Amino acid sequence: MFARSDSAKEDYISAELAAIYQHEGRAIQDLLTRNSTTKVTDLLREFSMEQLAADLEDAAPWLWRALVVISEPGKSTRAETAGETRKHKGLVFTTICALISVMRSQKANNFQLVIGLFLLGSGASKREIEVLAHAGLSISYSAITEHVKSLSQEGMEEIRELVKSAMCQIVWDNLNIAF
């Protein structure tokens, strides 16, 4: 059938790949969308770029393979020499998949949330964070501050539960009392 018509072959392959990539895009979106009951502390505690890369490769094998093929250096590209390291492709592919997820749904932003909190904790300026948010690599500065507030509330809840369940003592340090 395809030997007689190149356009039929292209239409079939295009439609078939489109269906596969649409399915994998949904799987990526589901993977990077947190449940409404998921605490930010749990997300941060369990986050791992390496594990996320493995999960994304499992969820979207066709897309992952396409990224591997697309990123292979050609013959005209300088070969890597001994001791020279390049970017870890899995981390770059993970970032690409995270961008795909947030393009599909603004709620599929687990990756961007972790990156945003990292940027804030690393001392990045509001302006830098906003630039990365516009590029889709982070959430906005205002969203980060809201998540910091929720982290604070989650921490207070954990402290309250700890105080209720275990013996504890409150201690003040560095009191400046004039005698």
From TrEMBL:
Originating organism: Mycena metata
Domain of life: Eukaryota
Name this polypeptide is given: Uncharacterized protein
